[in-house]
Design goal:
This protein is 39% helix and 19% strand. The protein has 366 residues and is α/β, with parallel strands linked by helices. Helix 1 crosses helix 6 and helix 4 packs across helix 6.
């Protein structure tokens, strides 16, 4: 089944833009009300949804990776008010688009493989959504917005009701400047008594939402927050030391974990490699060093690619971390851009690290 799926997807992937147009045309004819779940400018999402469905379906033979991811995805998709008939419509439209573009390659065996795999995916998501008692969406008000650099902002929000997240998790957000364009952000602080959640946002090139967040957010704006997701954590009782690797604003979930650990007097040894292209990218370095000065279990190593920061190691995070070996006795947490995560994990595996000691959240998959 999986081989048939991968083989046929390889045929249509080069024309995924056309497949996406066919898919959405079919979907909106089958279930017109589903159009309201998408942004007004659907072009920003067209290919993402089709690629996402295909990516997930191709993981159907890896249940240890797939099931936790689908459980989180199903919980998160409650914010769209997705119902069983919507899952059915999406599956029907996906099969119809593939049938159209595969032509004679669309055989009964291929159809059965895609249909069975999609059924597994949809059922797992629906079961997780139905089992989650927490609110699908919580509103929060912006109470602070500060530009740290021209393309980086610190934003604090106060939810109307407590958000039961754990340090290291992330959540989806929708902001008034970009309705129906949800994006994932990680709190940079552990849960606080006053409920305030802090986000660090970098405006990426071509990023509709991130640029709006950095440039146009104002105190008083009302955000919508999806449920907390993600599995990054530190087990203080495991006896294993911790290696944290953070690129840019990928620091946020690891910063939240450090914030949480700082409440305890005794912790495993934590070594954080914090990197970016330039010294300016290490926007939180001063505060991190202050935290390390009062917590002897924490060590900070700054890394820049251009060598612009005196005392920092030079190179990419993947290069610098693996200069020191495979870190065999460490629990490894990696957070950053999808490219940074992929490069770092690849280098760690080549250096001799095992995959089961490395943790990351694939929330970049939209």
């Amino acid at each position: 089944m999986v081989q048939l799926i991968k083989r046929t997807w390889a045929v249509v992937e080069p024309e995924v833009a056309d497949v996406s147009v066919t898919f959405h045309d079919l979907l909106f004819r089958i279930a017109p009300d589903i159009r309201e779940m998408f942004p007004v400018n659907i072009e920003v999402r067209r290919a993402k949804l089709v690629r996402g469905i295909a990516h997930v379906v191709q993981m159907v033979d890896r249940p240890d990776d797939l099931v936790p991811f689908l459980n989180q995805l199903g919980r998160d998709y409650r914010k769209f008010h997705v119902r069983s008939r919507h899952y059915e419509a999406i599956g029907t439209a996906m099969l119809g688009a593939l049938r159209h573009h595969l032509g004679p390659r669309w055989t009964p065996e291929v159809e059965r493989a895609w249909a069975e795999a999609y059924t597994v995916v949809a059922r797992s998501m629906q079961d997780a959504a139905e089992a989650d008692p927490s609110p699908a969406v919580t509103t929060a008000t912006v109470v602070d917005h500060r530009r740290l650099t021209w393309d980086l902002a610190l934003i604090r929000v106060r939810p109307e009701s407590p958000v039961n997240y754990r340090a290291g998790q992330y959540m989806s957000v929708e902001v008034p400047q970009r309705p129906r364009l949800w994006r994932y952000l990680s709190p940079a602080n552990a849960p606080r008594r006053d409920g305030i959640i802090e986000f660090h946002v970098h405006a990426v090139e071509g990023g509709w939402v991130s640029r709006a967040l950095v440039s146009h957010t104002q105190p008083g704006d009302v955000w919508r927050l999806g449920p907390p997701l993600g599995r990054l954590s530190v087990d203080r009782e495991s006896g294993r030391n911790v290696l944290m690797i953070a690129g840019g604003t990928g620091l946020a979930p690891l910063r939240a974990l450090l914030d949480d650990l700082s409440r305890w007097g005794k912790n495993p040894a934590v070594h954080l490699y914090y990197g970016g292209r330039t010294a300016e990218d290490l926007y939180d370095l001063a505060d991190l060093r202050a935290l390390a000065a009062t917590n002897p279990w924490l060590r900070i190593t700054p890394v820049t690619e251009d060598g612009s920061l005196p005392g920092a190691e030079r190179g990419t995070l993947a290069e610098v971390v693996t200069r020191h070996g495979a870190w065999p006795e460490h629990h490894v947490l990696v957070s950053g851009s999808p490219q940074m995560i992929k490069a770092t994990i690849s280098r760690l595996l080549v250096a001799g690290s095992s995959l089961d000691q490395i943790a990351y959240d694939p929330f970049a998959l939209d």
